[in-house]
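Researcher: Quick one. two chains, 226 residues in total.
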Amino acid sequence: AQSVTQPDIHITVSEGASLELRCNYSYGATPYLFWYVQSPGQGLQLLLKYFSGDTLVQGIKGFEAEFKRSQSSFNLRKPSVHWSDAAEYFCAVGATSGTYKYIFGTGTRLKVLA
Amino acid sequence: DGGITQSPKYLFRKEGQNVTLSCEQNLNHDAMYWYRQDPGQGLRLIYYSQIVNDFQKGDIAEGYSVSREKKESFPLTVTSAQKNPTAFYLCASSPTSGNTIYFGEGSWLTVV
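Model:
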């Protein structure tokens, strides 16, 4: 079955520390991969996406993610976290063609300590 | 600016009433979607539409209805048949199948 797993429900880091949010997927073929961020009571904002090519992709707000086909993973990283990064982060996959269904993980809530 | 506009932001409904959530996009996207978000459950697809006058049920369509009379608009009606409608509702759109999906700011629905 197609699925997206974000194993960490909550993560707490200190401001200035590095961050890695994990995402694993199960899919029949290499899907399109996305990371979104959601502030409380707001919609989802696209951080970055992977369609093809270089497996290390850069996004907005200093985030990057690496696609590892062998591990079916698409982990999100940031070298130095800012207090404003506190939010919920969602990993998602989409089919490369033929279907309009996207599969979202259940999210990881990030808390940043001053 | 281009984007997706949802209204109202907050809506209260009495039990037994139908309510309609509005979603308008000016991105010229073909596909539009409605998701429901509950705490700890991620996003669940209610309905989606690939083209005007056509739409498909998602994973949790029971108790909801939609229409797609215009490319820009995809309203969602939460009917009295929806047993637990209190949730955060997100409208989204994408240019084509599998492309990047963009979201509106969401609407809170509370049953009182």
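The first strand of chain A starts at residue 3 and ends at 5.
Researcher: Thanks, that's what I needed.
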